[in-house]
């Protein structure tokens, strides 16, 4: 899986709330942009709120360190390796109307850890929920 790489120097160039508003406004535009750029802007918008905690849609107040967010900006693998990173990534995907992507990834990760006698049932559930042509959360 390819990683996303962002320079750390850009974190200091962030202008706070104005850039966040600008980034949030872009979410609603139908412009085609690189996924990595959107994720980078989303992570940048989090930086001013890290000290006070970030509230996710499931009402958890998540405390993050700046170092942790910078680590996430280095690669998608580092982001997904962290529980709080997965939560933040889920929030980003919700804002992009594509939350089913992380749900599919989590289902596949769970499948990898499954014992052989339960594989068929989980594979069938993944197929019905994410893969078949009329799936509710088709990816």
Automatic annotation (TrEMBL):
Protein name: Regulator of G-protein signaling 1
GO MF assignments: GTPase activator activity
Pfam family, one: RGS
Localization of this protein: Cell membrane; Cytoplasm, Cytosol
Entry keyword Transcription: no
Chief location bin: membrane
Listed GO CC annotations: cytosol; plasma membrane
Keywords: Cell membrane, Cytoplasm, GTPase activation, Membrane
Limits of the RGS domain: 75-139
Keyword Membrane: yes
Membrane topology field: Peripheral membrane protein
Matching InterPro entries: RGS, RGS_sf, RGS_subdom1/3, RGS_subdomain_2
């Amino acid at each position: 899986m390819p990683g996303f790489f962002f320079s750390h120097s850009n974190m200091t160039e962030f202008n706070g709330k104005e850039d966040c508003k600008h980034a949030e406004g872009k979410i609603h535009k139908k412009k085609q942009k690189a996924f990595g750029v959107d994720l980078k802007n989303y992570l940048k918008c989090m930086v001013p709120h890290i000290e006070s905690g970030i509230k996710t849609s499931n009402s958890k107040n998540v405390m993050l360190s700046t170092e942790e967010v910078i680590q996430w900006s280095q690669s998608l693998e580092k982001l997904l390796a962290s529980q709080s990173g997965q939560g933040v990534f889920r929030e980003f995907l919700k804002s992009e109307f594509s939350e089913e992507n992380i749900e599919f990834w989590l289902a596949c990760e769970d499948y990898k850890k499954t014992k052989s006698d339960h594989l068929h049932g989980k594979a069938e559930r993944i197929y019905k929920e994410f893969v078949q042509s009329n799936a509710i959360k088709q990816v």
